Amino acid sequence: MSSAVTTDDDHHSAVNGVEKHPKKLKLTPADNPHTLTLITPSEIAAEFNHHDAAVARINNGSFGCCPETILAAQRRWQLLFLRQPDHFYFSVLQPSVAESRRKIVPIINAGDVGEVSLVDNATTATAVVLQYVSRAFNEGRFNAGDAAVMLHYAYGSVKKSVHAYVSRAGGHVIEVKLPFPVYDEGDIIAEFRNALNEAKLERRKVRLAVIDHITSMPCVVLPVKELVRICREEGVDQVFIDGAHAIGCTKVDMKEIGADFYTSNLHKWFFCPPSVAFLYCRKKGGKENGVVDDDVHHPVVSHEYGNGLPVESAWIGTRDYSSQLVVPEVLKFVERFEGGIEGIMKRNHEKVIEMGEMLVKAWGTHLGCSPEMCASMVMVGLPNELGISSDKDAMKLRFHFREKFGVEVPLYYRPPVDGEVGALTGYARISHQVYNTVDEYYKFRDAVIKLVQDGFSCAQLPS
């Protein structure tokens, strides 16, 4: 691999001007010199032949996937470092990370490369944002009792981070209790407005709103553009979108969404190896460093501290940076599919809905939300005969599916609401990625049918 990579000087302005979006390769017409040969089903299978063939892996959402082509590229980067670490550190790493950041800019429609940093994962990005907010409380820029709003269905580590950084700094946390199942975006918007009104009634200034783009469990695509607009109307200081599942799964457009901060993992649906995520910080006030505030820093303080978040994030000490460097190779990989990443997302959505509807028809249940509120994952109701009556039951049954039937799928317990009769208490979150086959979903279907026919109940599983 050549180390000759076009550079930008992140210590100054981002490429000294507006980032130009690279032209995408065309698949047609045939006389186009950049025409690509589309990947075949056998080639897709070969790219993921390291997956355990005995397991129906319909849970891409949890850990993602990485094709052999990208694993080989990662290995080349690792060996380049090990061959001559000093040369790699002083001459290769920073410009190569900058190149990966530049490749992300047009995909998410950011303003320029200075707004994009690469970090380990969405949890790290959350720490960046919440440490920034915590300092504002500690230094008196925010007042004790000012509020942060987050969703009840926020990812566990994000919820704990909000309490760790905001509550301990004197802030007040308001949770938005979203409905599930949900079939109308208006219900989500109404509950979000209720949370902001609660802050008004308590005379609290809302300093931060943390909003999922796609909730993890249960999974629903939220109307983030509308929720951000409401935040602006209501005077919320900062909006942070946790899009951990989003890039490669649904449309991600920074200018359209309009949030102050946005993060998404590149290793879930964008084929990068674990772990890498981007963190977008919206440029404000004509600043050229591409951050919301000079006080946005990586949580690990290293030699680059004070040189801007993108550079701070590109060196946090000696570690393996290879997952951040393969982004150009990933873009070449997705262009082998018809329609590129947009085509992949469209087909994954269509297939996961098709498989979800097949399952609920076989089990006599229903989906957890409308198809329009899904991307490449959907919640599928499980028969009540399985006896899922707690989070512990859901986890035990998930383990049972893995060990007994070779099916890997996350399960969700939905407590019944007072007065409900016959409501489903168990849901499975199924994913669809390019490597999945219909037989994997049939395997899951038949496993559930067998359990019901055998009179199985979660109460029979060991504690």
From TrEMBL:
Pfam families: Aminotran_5. Transmembrane segments: none annotated. Residues 97-354 form the Aminotransferase class V domain. Gene3D superfamilies: Type I PLP-dependent aspartate aminotransferase-like (Major domain). Keywords: Pyridoxal phosphate. InterPro entries: Aminotrans_V_dom, PyrdxlP-dep_Trfase, PyrdxlP-dep_Trfase_major. Residues 1-32 are annotated as: Disordered. PANTHER family: HERCYNYLCYSTEINE SULFOXIDE LYASE, L-CYSTEINE DESULFHYDRASE. This is Aminotransferase class V domain-containing protein. It comes from Saponaria officinalis (Common soapwort).
